[in-house]
Amino acid sequence: MQLYHHPYSLDSQKVRMALEEKGIDYTSYHVNPLTGKNMSVDFFRMNPSAKLPVFQNGAHVIYRAIDIIQYLDRLAVHLSGEIPAVNTEVHQWMQKVDAWNPKMFTLTHIPVKYRAFVSKFIRRVLIARMAEAPDLASMYHVKLREAYETEDKVKDPEIMKQSEEELSKLLDDVEAQLSKTKYLAGDEFSPADSMFIPILARITLLDLDEEYISCRPKILEYYNLVKHRPSYKIAIGKYFNGWKKYRSLFKTSFFLCVRTLLRRP
């Protein structure tokens, strides 16, 4: 089994936490979207959405995080031979968490100059790949159109407001739930928690803890609790603590700076 992912991809973190919680062995492949690796011809042939993560088990390839996590649940049941009771609350929370799209929220909290640079770079990569693989040109063109549409959306204050409101509503619902249970869908850690915790990590990465986490005491208590889990430390903590956080960010920043220097006359 192989997982194509990146440490700062929120959906990748969801899947990696689920894999670690289930104790499923897999081969890890880092694919950095900020350097266009997710749009290389080989990767694009496997996954025309160019989104991360991608999970592959033999000929079976799955793209969406929630689909991968549900597949892992079924796989773990098959390997164990047990038949657990159906937990509709876990499924409902997974759907609720998955309904919030973090893309616009993240982009609008990144400095404009960096966001514009990466956007322009990605568009150039797409145009180059269209020439490199003519048989994939129509699919690359779809991604190019999406890139332009994203640029327009990120400038719309109403879209940003809607994203923030949806996040606040989700966090308020979680706060209410955690006043009754230890974890998101009960007193046991579940795939719903694997889906939700990376959202808190994304808020932390954007330095927005005070606005979204610290003001919600039950979520803050829960967040501090899950940080001690081995799955969190492996999938998220090792990239967010101290110099390791900045090492991962530096690798990407260095690449982008080099590209800039090479293009200067």
TrEMBL record:
Domain GST N-terminal: residue ranges: 1-80
Protein name, as recorded: Glutathione S-transferase TCHQD
Domain GST C-terminal: 111-254
Species assigned in the record: Urochloa decumbens
Pfam families reported for this sequence: GST_C, GST_N_2
Transmembrane intervals: none
